[in-house]
Design goal:
By secondary structure, this protein is an alpha+beta fold. It is built from 40 helices and 29 strands. The protein starts with a helix and ends in a 7-residue tail after the last helix.
């Protein structure tokens, strides 16, 4: 072609993306070179091929341009490079490296762009080896992001699709795009790697008012690849589909579509689980987690599309296929072939809904479904915006850190030291591993999971009454209680754990007592005792105050036994209270030994809620001990529970009495503790009150069952009156629960300090932070100095759950408290120098649970420490930290410091420490790679002082020699070339004890789950 003829047609740049291409790449290049279009340029983007393709391209297409990327970012991100590398060309043609184009393909596509006024055009795709068989003639899609083939697999090309027509998706294998449209839409979505980039781009093009057209008069040969064995193919496909829906749908459409999307996800997950494909079952949930973690990015892309949108979602929807392509394919593939795998499930549900108690079952299932919807509605902002690490809400480090904390024999509390860790860390580490695909989902479950567990427990507590309707209403009565919302508002995770477990604990004690109707499963007394003890041990592993709760429950039910004149089960209740203490101590050994050595009743019962405030018994009865005040609606809960006392007979009346006794005794106990009438302090009100809530939910369930059974012989007026009262009360209870769900995050604070405290640590190396704050405000356990100052120490800026479960002082941490008292007493104004030997670089005073807009109370760290910090000569106030007082310690060089003469500089007493000058040293290049391993390279031959207790440490390699300093901290000296390092060596015996602990737990579970016959 001459230059003049080339100038007569618009320029087209063919952007061919390749990465480690196969044998088809050569034919792809040859087909591009052979095009009859006179103004075609070729740009090859080599996306990180192991062997660069420059020589092959130069041989076949010497005039082509080559751009090499060092890594493979995926087709979308690589193709977008053409946007910046190409200028002034009105058309871009994107193609894969496994296609071969018909010689007049580009000419036909450009011609059709002008004829149809299209934005994107694509040719007909045929099989690579047999061009008579169709592969694709454009693609369709449903509103859930599932693409639909418009031709049958292996269909012969008989010119049945040879008319130009609009399609919803232009396959990215070959598509010609107007450059201005590509720039307007911002190119392909770079987050979509591996699949669905063409659907996302075409969908956005439709929304912008562009036509997508297939041109069957020309074709490309396409080599199909089998992706069935590709790792994570299903997971990537699921998350890309969901992202496409989230980006392209308007707000109104998203509100209508997302419930259906979530329902389909749940159906698919359940089906894959029950069908034995558990490896694929997590794809849908993983897709949800992956997209939730990228909401900020998704919102930005939605905003970009909103700026260029020209047609409504309804018009776009008209171009898509109806229904769900995924679901239709399932029914065609399963039911159509006679493989009705859901028949058993359907039959089971049908049997329940058409049996003798069909009305109750249908009502129960309907109430349960409504309860789930309200739970999702109330958690909507937590689902879309995530949780925050505030108060006691657990912050989980990596699973390896949690597992090493349990197994390693080294406790990373504060400065650290030898010690036993609870089996809690093993459990949390395994859970963290199980949720490797979605940290955001795990964080959400840690907050809202106890709410769901509590509702399930209340359902199960009332199930022996014999009515599905009664169980469902009991679950609603428990879930609608305002108490868990108050616990979430104050970030009281221990209270949430007890809330989720309280109905199960009450039910276990009722079965232990063998009270009717809770004796249907017959087990011996030792087995029942063991079961209750194991349950308490599980709950107390996450919430130690549960031990107190576990004793309160049998004591309250013993009172109820006297009230209903059935004291036969009281000895079992007494033994249950003993088992609630003995069994957890046994299964938590050897950690329980460490707890006993440093036992603190104050630690066991836990701190008060920062929002706890109640001045009357009425506040307790309304379940309003904190900032959440539910108002008169709680009256509906009380009224519904009271009706059972009036109309109940036999087992129903006994159940109502037991429930009310649990409530009344718990209210009285909390009130007596509040008034100072008891010799011991009690756990916080929101930790004990779940017992009262569980009792009332049992009474409400008994009311429903009494209406079903005990009103038949009453007069019509009496019967209708009680039904009306109970009905109105239950409606009020439902309104109470709906009211609690309106905030969308159960009143959890929207901000936390974690966003900027992580930035306070030194970039040069590891650092330590001293936190001063009331225990109710802290994420980790605090220590108390002799002068009453609450403090905690962490490595780096963000405390996590590893700093929990620490009864009493640990290691040399108590020395820090003594130094703080000296400052308050006015004996020095150089607190920074006193803290330097402990590697403390930053001091942070926490006055509130969360930063603004949180409006809760402010609490002092105690001991008068806060006012004196500004008077310290070596502490520098750091600005830009709202709601926090942050001080930088100019004297410290971190927990690992290179010093010229360690023993001369390091002092033991406070007076000697005031003479110690750590500024002559420098921060050592040692990194804490796990709780018990420091490793790195020293920059000089000086000794390294490591601010940890010296006992139990071993050299990490042959180039390190260890010794103890005068302050019993660790000193590393060089013994040869190579990095320096130290690791804590746990003795064999402790690890054998941990193995024994697991065997003991396993044996206990095996015995507790065995069904035997009581004599």
């Amino acid at each position: 072609m001459t230059e003049a003829s080339a100038a007569d047609v618009p320029a087209v740049v063919a952007v061919c993306v390749t990465s480690n291409p196969g044998s088809q790449f050569r034919q792809c290049l040859e087909s591009l070179v052979a095009q009859d279009y006179p103004n075609l340029s070729i740009l090859v983007i080599d996306a990180g091929s192991d062997t660069p393709v420059v020589d092959e391209v130069a041989e076949i297409a010497p005039e082509a341009f080559i751009h090499r990327l060092q890594t493979d970012p995926g087709f979308s991100a690589a193709a977008n490079q053409g946007q910046s590398l190409v200028s002034d060309a009105p058309f871009l043609m994107f193609c894969h490296d496994d296609v071969a184009l018909d010689a007049h393909c580009v000419s036909a596509l450009v011609e059709e762009v002008f004829r149809s006024n299209a934005g994107i055009v694509t040719p007909k795709f045929v099989d690579w080896d047999d061009h008579r068989r169709l592969s694709q003639v454009g693609m369709g899609s449903d509103r859930f992001g599932v693409m639909v083939d418009l031709v049958e697999p292996g269909e012969f090309d008989q010119e049945q699709y040879d008319g130009v027509r609009d399609v919803f998706v232009a396959p990215s294998g070959v598509q010609l795009v107007r450059a201005d449209l590509f720039n307007t839409l911002g190119g392909f979505d770079p987050a979509l790697r591996g699949t669905n980039e063409d659907l996302d781009f075409s969908w956005r093009a439709h929304a912008a008012g562009a036509r997508v057209v297939v041109v069957p008069s020309t074709f490309v040969r396409h080599k199909k690849h089998d992706h069935s064995s590709t790792p994570d193919r299903g997971r990537i496909l699921a998350r890309n589909r969901l992202r496409t829906v989230l980006v392209t749908s308007s707000r109104l459409t998203l509100l209508r579509t997302m419930p259906l999307v979530l329902a389909l996800m749940v159906m698919e997950t359940v089906y894959r689980t029950v069908s034995g494909r558990r490896a694929q079952a997590g794809a849908a949930l993983g897709a949800l987690s992956w997209n939730l973690s990228r909401l900020k990015e998704i919102r930005a892309r939605r905003a970009e599309l909103r700026k260029v949108r020209q047609i409504s979602d309804a018009e776009v929807r008209a171009l898509q296929v109806g229904g769900s392509a995924r679901l239709s394919g399932f029914f065609r593939g399963q039911f159509g072939s006679g493989q009705d795998r859901l028949a058993g499930l359907v039959g089971s549900v049908r049997a329940n809904l058409t049996g003798a108690d069909a009305s109750s079952a249908r009502a129960g299932f309907a109430i349960g479904a409504l309860l789930i919807l309200v739970g999702i509605f109330g958690s909507r902002h937590l689902i879309t915006r995530g949780t925050v690490s505030v108060g006691q809400i657990p912050v989980l480090p990596e699973a390896s850190v949690l597992l090493n904390e349990w197994w390693g024999g080294w406790r990373s509390i504060g400065i650290g030291g030898e010690g036993w860790a609870p089996v809690t860390f093993l459990a949390l580490g395994l859970v963290k591993l199980a949720f490797f695909w979605g940290d955001g989902v795990l964080d959400l479950l840690l907050v809202v999971g106890p709410l769901a567990f509590g509702a399930v427990g209340a359902w199960r507590l009332a199930s022996p009454l014999g009515s599905v309707r009664a169980s469902a209403v009991a679950a609603v009565a428990y879930a609608a209680n305002p108490l868990p919302v108050a616990a979430i508002s104050a970030a009281r995770w221990e209270a949430l754990v007890v809330w989720g477990a309280a109905p199960f604990m009450v039910g276990a004690v009722l079965r232990l007592q063998r009270a009717l109707p809770f004796r249907k499963v017959s087990r011996s007394l030792p087995t029942r005792l063991l079961r209750y003890g194991l349950l308490v041990g599980l709950v107390s592993a996450f919430a130690p105050p549960a031990l107190v709760v576990a004793v309160v429950i049998p004591a309250s039910l013993a009172i109820a036994a006297f009230l209903i004149a059935k004291p036969a089960g009281i000895p079992s209740l007494v033994l249950g209270a003993v088992a609630a203490v003995v069994v957890p101590i046994a299964i938590h050994a050897p950690w329980s030994v460490a707890v006993a050595n440093r036992f603190s009743w104050e630690w066991l019962i836990g701190p008060r809620s920062p929002e706890e405030s109640f001045d009357s018994l009425a506040d307790l009865i309304r379940f309003a001990p904190g900032s959440i005040v539910p108002g008169f609606l709680v009256g509906g809960l009380l009224a519904a529970a009271a009706v059972g006392l009036l109309i109940g007979r036999g087992e129903r009346l006994d159940a109502s009495t037991r429930g009310w006794t649990l409530a009344l005794s718990t209210w009285g106990l909390v009130w007596a503790g509040r008034r100072g009438w008891l010799p011991l302090d009690l756990p916080a009100a929101e930790v004990l009150l779940p017992v009262a809530a569980a009792g009332l939910s049992l009474a409400v369930g008994a009311t429903v069952r009494s209406i079903e059974l005990d009103l038949a012989e009453k007069g019509r007026l009496w019967r209708n009156l009680n039904i009306a009262v109970a009905g109105v009360s239950l409606v009020v209870v439902a309104l109470l629960g709906l009211q609690a769900s309106l905030s969308g995050r159960w009143q959890l604070p929207t901000q936390s300090y974690a966003g900027f405290t992580a930035l306070l640590a030194e970039d040069e190396g590891p650092s330590r932070v001293l936190w001063l704050g009331h225990p109710s405000l802290m994420t980790i356990d605090t220590q108390r100095s002799p002068g009453g100052i609450y403090y905690a120490i962490t490595n780096e800026g963000n405390p996590d759950v590893v700093g929990r479960f620490a009864p009493g002082n640990h290691g040399i941490n108590d020395q820090v408290g003594e130094r703080l008292d000296l400052v308050v007493a006015g004996q020095t104004s150089n607190l920074g120098r006193l803290l330097a030997p402990y590697g403390i670089d930053v001091v942070i005073v926490v006055p509130q649970l969360a930063p603004a807009p949180y409006e809760g109370p402010s609490l002092d760290p105690g001991g008068g420490i806060a006012p004196v910090l500004d008077r310290q000569l070596d502490l520098r106030r750091v600005s830009g930290t709202p709601s926090l007082a942050v001080y930088q310690n100019d004297e410290s060089r971190g927990p690992a410091v290179e010093l010229p003469e360690v023993d001369r500089i390091v002092g033991v007493s406070p007076a000697e420490q005031l003479d110690s000058d750590f500024t002559v040293g420098r921060r050592a290049n040692l990194e804490l790679s796990r709780p018990s391993l420091w490793l790195g390279a020293a920059e000089s031959t000086d000794e390294i002082l490591l601010a940890v207790p010296a006992d139990g440490w071993q050299p990490a390699n042959s180039s390190t020699r260890l010794r103890s300093s005068s302050a019993d901290t660790l000193v590393l000296t060089r013994a040869g070339d190579g990095p320096l390092g130290a690791r804590f060596q746990s003795p064999t015996l402790p690890r054998l004890l941990l193995v024994g602990q697991l065997l003991l737990i396993g044996a206990g579970v095996a015995l507790a789950t065995r069904r035997d016959r009581a004599k």
